[in-house]
Amino acid sequence: MNDQIELRHLRYFLAVAETLHFSKAARRLGMAQPPLSQQIKRLEQMLGHALFERTTRGVKLTAAGHLLARRARSTMEKVDEDFAQVRRLGRGEEGTLTVGFSGSVMFTELPAAIRSFRRRYPKVELRLRELVTSAQIAALLNGQIDLAFLRDGDPTEGIRITTLLKEKYVAVLPEAHPLAGRKTLGVKALEGEPFIMFARRMGPLAYDRTIACCERSGFRPNIVQDAPQWLTLVRLVAAGLGVTLAPACVARVAMPGAVYREVKDACRTSIDLGVKAGAESVLARNFIEIANQHLGG
């Protein structure tokens, strides 16, 4: 015979302790009275002490019963909260999610997606890390981030990459540049201009797509300077050090001395979602669902 006290014994006991009536307690528990009475007697035998004084007028708690009632309530409340937390974790409503992003992605609707996620899942600790595309790929592989929002994500073994959005390019020009007077221009118009770009090591595919866009127009850009982030790059353009091609979302950055002009060519850059293969959690799936609503295009 099993002599271990189980959670059901405490539930049975508390039902009787709170009603001081076996029939009422049995109805609350959805069981017949005789089995309930047997379970309470069994609990008393296992403890070696009476928990109730039984009289013809009803039952009342003994001193031992009063103590157990206080402790059992605390125990059951803790167990119920633990179970509730497990369920929240299982649904992705609690926990920690680390999301990486390329700087230019913050000029899209990603901030709105972050806001929506925080509102829907306020108990999730959302950690954000700005990293260039190549660093995000490495961080996914070593488990430092759970999701990556990449600018032109490079195909990588062990990483599942999905395109969320394709963007046109814009030309970024010094305000006094002769081409700044145009509303739109072709990439060919930038031939011979000094270019400012990111170093290829920061995002090989993004670099290669920009180069390919120029080569399709018959020239290879003359790169005179690289820069670590878009704000720096646009600032250098504003200073008159060169021109560049940027994702259309970068035009949201207002920088005195720099202007943005629509590019008519069919070249495109992409925002891609990266997840380590086989490591997508419920938390990550919840964030991806919201991100798709905001960025899916």
TrEMBL record:
Q: Which UniProt keywords apply?
A: DNA-binding, Transcription, Transcription regulation
* Superkingdom of origin: Bacteria
- Which is an annotated Pfam family here? HTH_1
> GO molecular-function annotation terms?
DNA binding; DNA-binding transcription factor activity
- Which GO cellular component does the record give, naming just one? protein-DNA complex
Instruction: Tell me which InterPro entries the record gives.
Output: LysR_HTH_N (IPR000847), LysR_subst-bd (IPR005119), WH-like_DNA-bd_sf (IPR036388), WH_DNA-bd_sf (IPR036390)
UniProt lists the family membership as follows:
Belongs to the LysR transcriptional regulatory family.
PANTHER family with a match to the protein in the record:
HTH-TYPE TRANSCRIPTIONAL REGULATOR CYNR (PTHR30346:SF28), TRANSCRIPTIONAL DUAL REGULATOR HCAR-RELATED (PTHR30346)
Q: What is the official name of this protein in its record?
A: DNA-binding transcriptional LysR family regulator
Task: Say which species the protein is native to.
Answer: Tunturiibacter lichenicola
